[in-house]
């Protein structure tokens, strides 16, 4: 098992895209509440994707360039393409939401279906991008860096996250991770954000419900032996290893 810098975030993104495409297929495009829920979901996706791309552009890509990753040009083009597609998707749902809220319902069903196809196309492109990162970039990084060095890189990527950012992403990330991973994240958050942790714990309970939260918080008290080989608490609390 090697450290995987893409572990949890890619699970989150896949889960978020999947649910949004399902929701887009079920949205009643003439119903303001249904359209607004879609609009808010897309804004949350934008928040996650922009933050993730920024962290890759500023921390990961300079390392890949320095190590002379051969497909650097492709990787950068993929980020530019994704940014353009994201802007188009956001623009479409924003316009539909505005018109629906204003009662301008003519043509909304057709525009809604077009939006559904546009979102599905974006998802297809983005999944290929993650596949590139997981099957080519990650093995390249793992061949150049030790797990401890990768961990430092991952920490540098997370350094710009504020407690508020974390609070916003809880509802997005927690539903898509295993209970073991969730427990490790809980441990990490309680160490990094001691004063904001009660709010975060409250949000986790809201998202996962009482039963799962109790299990996860119990798991968070368990020691993870594998972690001690590396860097103790931090890896224990992220648990993002890949075979
Ligand atoms: Fe990326």
Characterization of the model:
The chain is mainly alpha-helical. The chain folds into 2 domains: 1-160, Four Helix Bundle (Hemerythrin (Met), subunit A); 161-243, no CATH class. Helices cover 79% and strands 2% of the residues. The chain has helices at 7-26, 32-66, 72-101, 108-144, 147-158, 163-173, 179-192, 197-219, 225-229, 233-238, and strands at residues 2-3, 241-242. A two-stranded antiparallel ribbon has the order 1-2. Helix 2 (32-66) packs across helix 5 (147-158). Residues 53, 56, 79, 129, 133 line the site of fe (ii) ion.
Largest sheet: 2 strands, antiparallel
> Level of helix content?
over 70%
- Report how far the terminal alpha carbons are from each other: 4 Å
The structure class reads mainly alpha
Low-confidence stretches: 227-237
Overall geometric form: globular
Question: Can I get a quick summary?
Answer:
With 243 residues, the chain is mostly helical. It has helices spanning 7-26, 32-66, 72-101, 108-144, 147-158, 163-173, 179-192, 197-219, 225-229, 233-238; strands at residues 2-3, 241-242.
